[in-house]
Amino acid sequence: MTARLDEKLELIYEDVLHRNPGESEFHQAVHEVLETLGPVLVKYPEFAEKKIIQRICEPERQIIFRVPWQDDKGEIHINRAFRVEFNSALGPYKGGMRFHPSVYLGIIKFLGFEQIFKNALTGLPIGGGKGGSDFDPKGRSDDEIMRFCQSLMTELYRHLGEYTDVPAGDIGVGGREIGYLFGQYKRITNRYESGVLTGKGLDWGGSRARTEATGYGVVFFTSEMLKARGDSIEGKKVVVSGSGNVAIYAIAKAHELGAKVVACSDSSGIIVDEKGIDVAALKRIKEVERRRISAYTEFHKDAKYVAGGSIWSVPCDIALPCATQNELNANDAKTLVENGCIAVAEGANMPTTPEGIAIFQQAKLMYGPGKAANAGGVATSALEMQQNASRDSWSFDYTQKRLEDIMIEIHRSCYETAAEFGSEGNYVLGANVTGFIKVARAMDAMGVI
Amino acid sequence: MTPADGNSQDDMRVSTGLPGLDDVLDGLRIGDNVVWRVTDLDDYRRFVTPFIESAASAGRRIIYLRFGQHPPLVSAKANIHIENIDALGGFEAFTGKVWRLIEEHGRGAFYVCDCLSDLLNAWATDAMVGNFFRVVCPFLFELDTVAWFALYPDRHSRTTLDRIRRTTQVMVDVHRLGDDVQIQPIKAWRRQSPTMFLPHRERQGRFVPITDSSDATRLQAGLELAQLNRQPLLDYWDRLFLQVAGALEGNEEAQIANIKDRVLNVLISRDPRMLELARRYLSLEDLLAIRARMIGSGYIGGKAAGMLLARSILLTNQPDIWQEALEPHDSSYLGSDSYYSFLVHNGLWPAIMRQRSAEGYFTEAAELHESLMTGSFPPEIRAELERLLDHYGQYPILVRSSSLQEDGFGNAFAGKYDSIFLVNQGPPELRLSALEDAIRQVYASTMSKDALVYRKQRGLDQREEPMALLIQRVNGRFHGRYYLPDAAGVGVSRNTFAWDTSMDPEAGMVRLVMGLGTRAVDRIEGDHACVMALDYPSRQPFRNQDESYRFSQHLLDVLDLKEGKLNTLPLSQLTQEIPDLPLKYLGEIDQPASRRAEELNLHVPVWRLTFQTLVRGSRFISRLSSLLKTLEAGYLHPVDVEFTLRLDDAGEPAFNLVQCRPLATIGASAAAAIPAGIPDRQLLFQTRGHFMGGNINLCIQRVIRVDAAIYSRLSVSERYEVARLIGEQVRTGDDKTMLIGPGRWGTSSPELGVPVRFADIAGVSVLIEVAEMEGDMVPDLSYGSHFFQDLVETEIAYVALFPNGRNCTYQPELLPGIQADSSEITPENSLQTFDLRDNSLQLTGDVVSQNLVCYFTNEQPSF
């Protein structure tokens, strides 16, 4: 937290610290948003007068509740669960549920606060929220997971609804958990309200293209960044870190749009295939055989596997970090710039360190922050809600088209906002401010609530 | 007389001390080894005494090698140097000692030795006596010595006597009929006369040749009558087992106990603990059965002994279960003496002696390795190997090292020597050649760097390590071109990886794989065995099904009969090629992957090896638990076992027990007792429970510690920088390193701990996680599951410290020079490295008592 805040914003920040002691992750998230708001308040002084910012920083509702459950041996356990319904100015609260022993109120607030602006960027009618529990799913049987989810939903259901609060998955909450949660909700409420949860299975209200969404989205965004500079993704050499869903489908879409992805990775090492990564082989390795990336060379003898290697040292035009947090540091950023990289877009959450971002910005490289570039996943969650609301199920192509349009719109609004505020091409500023302005305008319109 | 060489013969001549004998033999020559075949040691003494007197008066240096049980041949005198050598230390130790003595005394020394036949009492085998002679005599010849030996011919087989005769320069028989003493030279290298090789009768100090043929014939007949049936055809070893058979027939308890003890000491082990087990659990019938499947003589080695003992413990203590559930084994043994015979046959003894020296221990190993890889087998062993292959037909076999020390208490030698799978296909000559190559490879593995370093670290570098071999039919089935068991695993009677506090370490654990057990035994890069706690076999350290599938076994080891070797193949390939794999008991269908496979036009369904049907639907877990508990009770020590499984049509497993040994220790030496009363100012930490990896006894040379107070104040990106710095530090140097950090190592969430990758820390010896509540640090000591799996695959010990808990003490302030500079909150400042190459920090953990301590061997100054 190095940037100084304007005096007014500093006071707001102090108040946040005072009201939320010991929640350093939340403090940091608030500070980072406030850092960008100085110019916004100059242009929109009413946001300050009507204390919009203060209201945004205060969750609309924070629910903490007990979740008792029994394990397979009959022993009783008690966990704590949270649902922070942060902001519903644009739509029902929307955000995932995280089951992890590290979960406490501060983490949920931090994630929920960020979710407000991330969701707002999509342009879809979704607010911001987050939830979770300190429950550790590790080593638990299906039955134990089910009992926990049922106990949690028995309390939480009264706060949810397709027009109220729509949770989704996150760390520790996958399709299995969403199924158990939805089942219990339906049982208690006696309503088949499919839009109350997203991340559902395809057979019971889930959306096509969800698996591909984030990966496709980051490439759509990248393509728009290049177009804005009169360039094209076609013919470009790309590296994509990771080999999970985001990476696999980013690679697939990049190839489809005429680029060539020459490297990908997993936690054990990197693969470089100058002929272009074979997506079918990658899917086979990762989705069918569930093996490490090193197996790629069994299918392509010309490809090179480097154990523990750095993907950022592979020369490229475009880099798409799609693996994990903080995987791209200042040295990596320097290497990319020196090797002629012209664009970076984040498929993962916060993969680039602040120092790395600074280097990209200094080099005037096109940098798409995760908040904007990886919004494809969130957007498709909202598309799932739309399908549920209309009791419809869209085709893959239609959903993908909607996704593409959303990403194009996200790019446009970030780009134009950045220009509006005198920082053309600064997608970080654009993303932060765009999201904030949408929420602030809506809140302004709704009176003092 | 016809001297072999010209005028120089006079210079080389040595007197026997008896002019009459000198006349018969034309004197001795420098370089002569003289073997006296006697029926009474006094006859040898009668000739050795004048020889010594004559040599002494000629100013010769005389060395008396004293090793026999008979009364000494000579008493200490000024010009006689007596060297006492213990034959009970084994062939290698004895022969090595003699070799070094000869080297030490150098050129021109004269030697008088005790009766070689007394070595039989210690070694129980003719072949080794012959080998000793074949090693030592050429060396003596080279050094221009004269050496005298004696033996009782009726105690040795003809083969041995022939070998000795071929090697020596002079051999003389002494016969006594009443007062009538005759000598008959049998061999006198490079000299002869018309009467030299006739029997000679002693008459008043002279030896008169018996030139009358009738006289000679009567004499010979008389001798043969006296010695009728005394010349054995069989080796001492074979005669010993005839005595065993005789004792069984006689059925007299005392005799049985006596002969059993003799046999155990030369067949099974020298280790008192193993011998005690063998006495209790192996019968004479068992020992005869071993002998029936044995090639050569000597020990069967630790691995074979362990396997046989374990089987016997199970069948004795739980016959109801194991008569049915324990598969018969089909094992053969290549005795440890064959290893020495191989060395001697290939003239490798000098090389061995050079390698055994301090200077040559490592430098001579490579050449010796090469010599072992290219040596030939003595004809009698080759013939036995052919017969062995006839027995196994074309079933794959496994040639396994079984050195004397292996699988013993304290020194497991786990993975240090080779085991070779043979597909055993093709014409007999090819199969024999492959078998010989495999044996050579195992022999040569005694010279691998790994094995040499291991021995040196344990102070075993000068100890005898005869290599026996265990040759077994591989348990499994033919599946077209592949051969593999249904499943295989390693069971440990203590759970050394209890990752959940509800798991009882005493319940034990198992690593289970499909296919050959090599993937359960060896560390496998990029793949995983199924690790289960036996009290919670269905509980896995995964958060969801995706993780449990991702960290399951993907690759199988199989014997590929077409390619003639062991191959590692993806499960996906094998499920296509082998339709009758028992997948329904060992795995489950991965539905999401199967759907994806269908979309990609790949083979479906896709299976994952979770073993849950085996666990839930059969008696596997209960039987394995029972097996381990029974063996631990028998050994009076935790054990680890290797086994294969054969599933019947209902999925019920039968066990084939392949190996059993006392549970090993992570560290440089045998398990050490936890020292009591460690002074407070020396105790870095101690804990009860919460450690993984088994018995630990490590000398720590470097500590890298993350200061929680500073670390907790770092930003997220700075915490990642710490992880990178740690990786850089760990990769420099190969000191035994202990990593200490707050929260969870390898977490993907920096608020939980230090987000290193496994590759960053793979080189450390110990990983310590400390529950430290600092700032916003959330203490959490559960594993990232990939991290846990990778830890299981390595020998990295893991310890969790709860300083606020009852049974834990942690005093980081004792680390020398520790000072937290909390004024500067930087990644570099959060990391502290302590050089402890003065070997002052010891980590000792006992899996039985669940106690672990880390302490300085010297008191630490306070700061």
Overview of the molecule:
With 449 residues, chain A is of the alpha/beta class. Chain A has 18 helices and 12 strands. Chain A has a 7-stranded mixed beta sheet, sandwiched between helices. In chain A, α7 (142-156) crosses α8 and α9 crosses α17 (396-420). Chain A is globular and about 55 Å long. Chain B is an alpha/beta fold and 863 residues long. The radius of gyration of chain B is 33 Å and the shape is elongated. The longest helix of chain B has 17 residues, at 41-57. In chain B, the strands form 9 sheets. Chain B has a 9-stranded mixed beta sheet. In chain B, strands 28-31-40-41-29-38 form a 6-stranded mixed beta sheet, with no helix packed on it. Chains A and B meet through α2 and α11 of A and α23, α26 and α30 of B.
- If you compute it from the alpha carbons, what radius of gyration of chain A comes out, rounded to the nearest whole angstrom? 22 Å
The helix tally of chain A amounts to 18
Elements of chain A, N to C (H/E): HHHHHEEEHEHEHHEHEEHHEEHEHEHHHH
Tally of alpha and pi helices of chain B: 33
Query: What is the gyration radius of chain B calculated from CA atoms?
Result: 33 Å
Number of DSSP strand runs of chain A? 12
Helix/strand/pairing category of chain A: alpha/beta
> What is the terminal separation of chain A in angstroms?
30 Å
**Low-confidence stretches of chain A at least 5 residues in length (pLDDT < 50)?**
none
Strand order of the largest sheet of chain A: 9-8-7-6-10-11-12
Question: Mean of the pLDDT scores of chain A?
Answer: 94
Residue share in helix of chain A: 40-55%
Largest sheet of chain B: 9 strands, mixed
Binned, the helix content of chain B reads: 25-40%
Biggest sheet statistics of chain A = 7 strands, mixed
